[in-house]
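Q: Convert this sequence to structure tokens.
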Amino acid sequence: MPDVSDSVSTMQSRSRRTQEERTASTRGKLISAAIDCLARLGFADSTTAAIAEAAGTSRGAMLHHFPSKDELLIAVVEHVLDDSLSDYGKQLMAISDPRERLLATPELAWEGIQTPGYMAWLEIWLGTRANAVLAEQFRAAYERVNKRAAAAMRQLAKDAGVTNPRRIENIRVLFVGAMRGLAIEGVIAGRVDHLEPAVAEMRRLFEQVMPPATTRSVARSVRSTRVPRKGGAIAAKAK
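A:
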């Protein structure tokens, strides 16, 4: 005779998994809708009502998953940063040569910046200036991911033969700041084509800090391993 208690336990377990799946699906839709609204409408106009409508759900249902707008925005920040770092890492690891891998970082980073996700991140960052609580949560989320990104960059540099810790960190800070500044410049100008030479210059800077060796072109490697993206978010936002 079947054990009734085992059957009930199995049914409850399946029910919990189903509920967890529904919750994860709804949260994912809300995060995606928030990214879309922030990239298209900007921080001020990305209201909870607008995000709920874009997600195809009620504002009440949204507040059930994210009791406050700030909680949703921080979820967006964490999602964008984690997703970007993961995608970036996969593309770089697909390049076998360590030197070519480091030289590919500016172009691949620039591609990642030209996405709705990064634009949403940028909007939230700018919005923290008027919200001290959000600013504190934003910094905490950023620092968690930034530590992983910094460690990954240090390893990339070491693998390519750059062994001076201070120089590696200086290059990393310059690189991150330059990419972010170019993104803002793209928003102001309403286009990004004029910024491509600056991205190429960053690659040449990386070549200069490497120890003497033949630096082969990475164009072919980058093209063959590039993950398709929906670019143009920076220029589109400025229109």
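The chain has two domains: 1-67, 70-238.
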